[in-house]
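Supplementary Methods, section 5.1.

A reviewer requested that the exact input to the structure prediction be made available. We therefore reproduce it here, unchanged from the version used in the analyses.
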Amino acid sequence: MRRVVITGAGTINPLGTDVQSTFEAMREGICGIGPLDIRDVDRLSIQIGGQVRNYDEHANFNRQQIALYDRFTQFTLLAAREALLQSGLEFNGRLADRSGVVLGTSGGGLNTQDENYRAVYEEGKNRVHPFIVPKLMNNAAVSQVSMEWNLRGPSFTVATACASSNHAMGQAFNMVKSGMADVMVTGGSESMLCFGGIKAWEGLRVMSRDACRPFSATRNGMVQGEGAGIFVFEDRKHAKKRGAEILCEVAGFAMSSDASDIVTPSKQGAARAIAGAVRDARIALDDVGYINAHGTGTAANDKTECAAVADVFGAHADNLMISSTKSMHGHLIGGTGAVELLACIMALRDGVVAPTIGYEEPDPECALDVVPNVARDAKVDVALSNAFAFGGLNAVLALRKA
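The structure derived from this sequence is encoded token-by-token as follows.
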């Protein structure tokens, strides 16, 4: 089996419009969550979110492109441009045939769907734009990325709610590892911050009205965000041969299904995925120094995740740093694991562990080192990125310092 490395990273999210600004925000513990600026926000009970502020689609795309690109696709393309520029790759000939795209999303073109449902049902229009279907379909971002960079290998979209990005990156990892592909562009994106998107989530009664405070005894729910994180996964020998900068190594991946409840998480299911990623990476439990937690800020998720970590790592759990960057950028649903992977890269490459901000009061059921409020300088050789979705679908990535 081949070794897999990351040679490019790109993002746009509530903390920044590129990787460097996102790293700086994570180091400073900046909160990207604030009042929502969307249509009909006054009709919503939840009026906060991790929004990409001051975004101008016309500054990035022309009229013809905007007619085809939902906001989630636009975010994907912007992040992909940064990642592929950093990688230095050009896709021609055999490399184009052996390179593909696997991305995660949950809502896909939800903004487009929301706008057109409004036009048809509220405004009474009988016609919509002919490109609505290719604009709103979940594979729109994958298809547009493949076309823009001539990626002719395996390409598809993964939709597993909040674990979509991690599942997508896991598939990309296994494709390069097995030799099915030499390069995979992967990650995820989401933009569900529209009236219909927020209104639907309100019905679950898991949303906070004021802030995301993972692991704190005073937490009162999750906060939605939006954005994208895109990465270039590459065969290590291929990367070394061309002299590419290696950000870190993707060392292992595992998935599990709780098979128990559509919304309530299972400690056993999460633990199997965490332990499986460690086994797949062929590392010892005490090699792991940092975990980027799923850490949604809901009572059920946080305590279940902490219990799973304690079960897997035993006494070493007290030596681990585990933080939730959702406290800063919100929960990007299908795109969240991709943006959170940046925190793992920062810990491995720069020795800076992103904090869990908004932490107010210890919870005895979350009695781990959650890196409260302030980033920490620390030597990290191995990091895990957790994602646990509604439906009990779990996906964990293990990463190693380059």
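The mean pLDDT is 98. These observations are discussed further in the main text.
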